[in-house]
Amino acid sequence: MDATEPAAGTATPEELRQQAKADNDHRKVAACLVCRRSKVKCERGPVGDRCRRCIQLHTECERPAFHVGRRKGVKNKRTGLDKALYQVEEALRQVSQNAHSVDATRAVSELKALLQASSQGQQRNSAGVADRKRRHVTASADSHDQESSSETEDHVDSPQSENSARQVSSPVSSSRNPREESLAVDDAENPLQLLARASNLHLSPPSSDIAASGVTGSGSLQSLLNHNSKDIAEIERFFNSTQFSLDTDADMDPINLGLLSEEEAEALFAFFHQNLSHTRWGLDPLLYTPPFTRARSLFLFTSITAMSALFMPSAGALSRRLSNHCKTLANRVIATRCRSVEIVLAFMINVPWMFPGKHSADDDTCWYVSMAATISLDLSLHKTLVPLDSHNAEPPSHVSRADCIDPKAALALDGFHDVDPSSELGRRLLRRRERTWIALFVLERGMCLARGRTYSIPHTPIIKSCDRWHISDIADSMDGHLVSMAVLRRDLDKLFASIRSLCDEALDSRNNGSAIAHSIQLTIEQFFERWHANWGHSIGTGPDSRLPPYVQILVTHTRLSIYGSVINHPTAAVEVRHFFRAAGLSSALHVMRAAIRGESELKSMPNNTAIMVSFAACFALRLSSQFAGNPNLAQSVRTLIEETADVLERIGTITLHRNGISTLYGKYLRHIVRKAAIGTETMTPSARAGVDPLHSQVNAFQQLGHVGPVLTDPLVSQPYMEASPWSEQFQFSAMSDDQVMEALSRVGNEFDPSFGGFAWEDTATLDWMDWSNLPEYRI
């Protein structure tokens, strides 16, 4: 490769300038391979293109093609389209690691597919030319070819440079086909860079478009790639976030199966929203129309129509068909692991009017509530909706980031990817998530209060801050009733804790039991006064803001549960226990009176409400038998219980096919009342005389009035010691509230602490309701 030296003294000044420029250009070439291996500076010799070290070693001086700047793969040294593609790949890699929403994941997948298709087309069009540039193809040893290596990329792509490259390349590289070019490894000569590129795995598995791209390759290799692609897809699906799954199979559609027509569905939906929505809160009538509900959940669609048919006298056959199909759908939803907000609502709608099982605790109420709670947590219904896509958006100070969810992500979880959260439809869809969680909280707490179970739904930020949730331009008319019950049952935990601490103070002998009773009574009164002040005007009717019968039963039963907890608390003083027996009896009577007077509005009484009324009846029956001063009270209470039993039986048989559980409770109440009456009549006079009130208790209640202000329950009046028994019975159902208060105040407070007036053979008759075992106290 030696070049002929120019003759001395024959060059003109112009030729000398051109020769100097050529020498300067020649010095831009890269270091030769010998100097690279020795890691020394490659200095060109005075003659020709050979460097000084190659001249000393008498070896051939070979140099690779020279490129200005760093090699591909080094940060911040990419240009043109290569730089743009690299930036997009890096952005996708970062976004894919932090993508939590379905929209972001789908956008990343689409961009990955576009990049992969672009890279495949680039490989087919370039036919290996770009790869040779990145892999430092060895240049020709000829000096003229060496000069051409310092030219621009257009000269590199010329046929002359390609021919020189083929002459020095190995037979393997010269025979490569495009398929092998695409499988080549970049930067194989740089171990550190190769490891860096290997750690950055492909953003997505190879697409199936490779097989259809016309690129020929090994069949076994192609099958291996397809198999790996399937495995990766399965792994990604396995570790993907929880997604919605709708139960909308056409083979289970009640309309397709001929169980009902579309016209019947329209009529049943209208009946539900008009006559049953005040009993089962949680549905937006403007959103849950028959077409929308049918497209979202066949379980909910069938449940609404089945529950409506229960209360339509002429829909007996339709009700039986839909009820059986509803059970089938419930089992199918559980077996196929379907998840949606509508499925949660379907489980909740079936709870109020569920048919009785073989035993009082054998129905599916607790199971349905548990399934609704599980699906709700899977769909993040308990999380607060806070926009997280804005840098300035921060969750409230009392809410952690883990308890928040972005509205777009929430809609994506429900399958509404294209709905704008700020639109009216988006706001209603988001509000339905919050309404469902609040309704589930109210239902679960009511079930636990009625059945003596332990709570399972936690106090989430939505529940803690729902006091003004019902105030909205898209609120439903029943949202106020729902929130009022949520607030009442939410704050019960604090009230129970206060009562428990006050009762524990009675263990100290220095504390007066009467003073503690007064403190407990004042705490309870203030609690309900605040609740009535906040919610009486918004949900009450009439000038007196009278509560609807259904809500009145729930509130009064809550008061009764509190009194029962105080009576049975192990650390409560004797004065506390006996004082709250009269208050508890008053609350129990008012629960039954509310059921009797509101019968016309309680035709769709839920099962939990029937249990609450039965609990109040048994409570009153047991306490009335302990009034030793007036036997007429016990007979009056038994009469009121019989009237309540009649109401429960009529409500349970409002239609021939209703089969309500309240019918069984009414029959059972009638049975135990007759049993109690027989036991009272068979008591001997000597036994009646033996029931003598204890003077110590009378003195304790006399002292109670001198401790502080007079203890007043809104349902019980003072003084208790003005005992002047009436000769006639009390007609509690026909009396006003003031007359009931006066009657109870005239009865006196002479309880029988030894339960001598409780003459039943089986003292555990009331254990079937477990009403005395309040979950807060583990009694």
From TrEMBL:
Q: Which CDD domains match?
A: fungal_TF_MHR, GAL4
In what ranges is there compositional bias, type Polar residues? 117-126, 158-167
Q: Where is the composition biased (Basic and acidic residues)?
A: 14-25, 142-157
Protein's organism: Coniochaeta ligniaria NRRL 30616
Query: In which compartments does the protein localize?
Result: Nucleus
| UniProt-listed Gene3D superfamilies | Zn(2)-C6 fungal-type DNA-binding domain
| Upper classification of the organism | Eukaryota, Fungi, Dikarya, Ascomycota, Pezizomycotina
Taxonomy, superkingdom? Eukaryota
Q: Which GO terms describe its molecular function?
A: DNA-binding transcription factor activity, RNA polymerase II-specific; transcription cis-regulatory region binding; zinc ion binding
Q: Which UniProt keywords apply?
A: DNA-binding, Nucleus, Transcription, Transcription regulation
Q: What PANTHER family does the annotation carry?
A: FINGER DOMAIN PROTEIN, PUTATIVE-RELATED (PTHR31845), ZN(II)2CYS6 TRANSCRIPTION FACTOR (EUROFUNG) (PTHR31845:SF17)
Q: A Gene Ontology CC term for this entry?
A: nucleus
DNA-binding keyword on record:
yes
The coiled-coil regions, if any, are: none
Protein name as annotated: Zn(2)-C6 fungal-type domain-containing protein
Region of interest: Disordered: 1-25, 117-186
Zn(2)-C6 fungal-type domain boundaries: 31-61
Note the InterPro entries from the entry.
prtT, Zn2-C6_fun-type_DNA-bd_sf, Zn2Cys6_DnaBD
Keyword Transcription regulation recorded? yes
Where composition is biased (Low complexity), the residues are 1-13
